[in-house]
Structure formats: C-alpha cells, structure tokens
Design brief:
Blueprint lengths: L5 E9 L2 H11 L3 E6 L2 E5 L5 E7 L4 E8 L6 H10 L4 E4 L9 E5 L13 E5 L9
Parallel strand pairs: 1-4, 5-8
Antiparallel strand pairs: 1-5, 2-3, 3-4, 6-7, 7-8
Length: 132
C-alpha cells in the first residue's frame, strides 16, 4: 500500500488554456508561475505547485500527485503495485522541482479521483513551482 501524506498537485487538460488560467488566478487566487507552449503552472502564494494545465481536447483531470514520507521506499511501492497488476515506472525527470517520482496508471481509481488513462505520481518532494 502507498501511504500518501498529502495531495501534491493536479494536472488538468483544458481546451482553452487562457480561460483556465484566468479561472484559477482570478477565482481561486493562485499565481501563474510559468507558461510555455501548451502548458501553464500555477502555484499557491507560498510558491508550491498546485495546478498544472495542459492544452487538450477536453476538460479533464489527467494526473494527480501524492506526497509520501521522505524515507518511503519506491522499490517496495513498485513491488506492491506489481503484485496488484499495476505497472509503474520510477522517474527522475517528471517535473522541475520534483526528485524521484513513481508513476503509474491506476485502473482501479474511480473516475472522480482520476480520469481514465490518468496517471498518479508519488514523490517524497513537496513540489515548488517551476521558475521561468
């Protein structure tokens, strides 16, 4: 079992990137930290990455991340997932500001938690928003 300590950040796909940025900054009070072709990163006022937006065909939750304890063993988590029939991948290049990340597609996640074909990230790092 993965023992999540907190939700890290969420990545949403949106057909209208500028409208989504306006919503999260004007209505939800987040700060646009960086914008690049087809992507934007929004942070809390203390600088932690909260929302990542990606230009896409429909509005949906694409990925969600959970923070685990700093001493969490990614190898053990990957073995547990494998026993449950879930393939995972250990990555170190997932997003600026995040160290090691264990990614996996969770076929058991309910649609309200993660969209179909969504990816769950597990990291020990509280993610600071990328800098421009």
């Amino acid at each position: 079992m993965i023992k999540a300590r907190r939700i890290g950040h969420a990545t949403f796909e949106t057909p209208d990137l500028d409208r989504a940025i306006a919503y999260f900054t004007d209505v939800k009070g987040l700060v646009l930290n960086a914008k690049e072709k087809g992507r934007a990163f929004l942070a809390s006022k203390i600088g932690l990455l909260t929302i990542s937006l990606e230009q896409g065909g429909e509005g949906s939750l694409r990925r969600i991340s959970f923070e685990v304890a700093p001493n969490a063993d990614f190898t053990d988590m990957a073995k547990t997932l494998s026993i449950q029939g879930v393939r995972s991948e250990l990555r170190s290049d997932a997003l600026l500001g995040i160290g090691k990340v264990l990614t996996f597609d969770d076929p058991m996640a309910p649609p309200s938690s993660c969209s179909r074909n969504g990816t769950i990230w597990v990291s020990t790092t509280r993610c600071s928003a990328p800098t421009r």
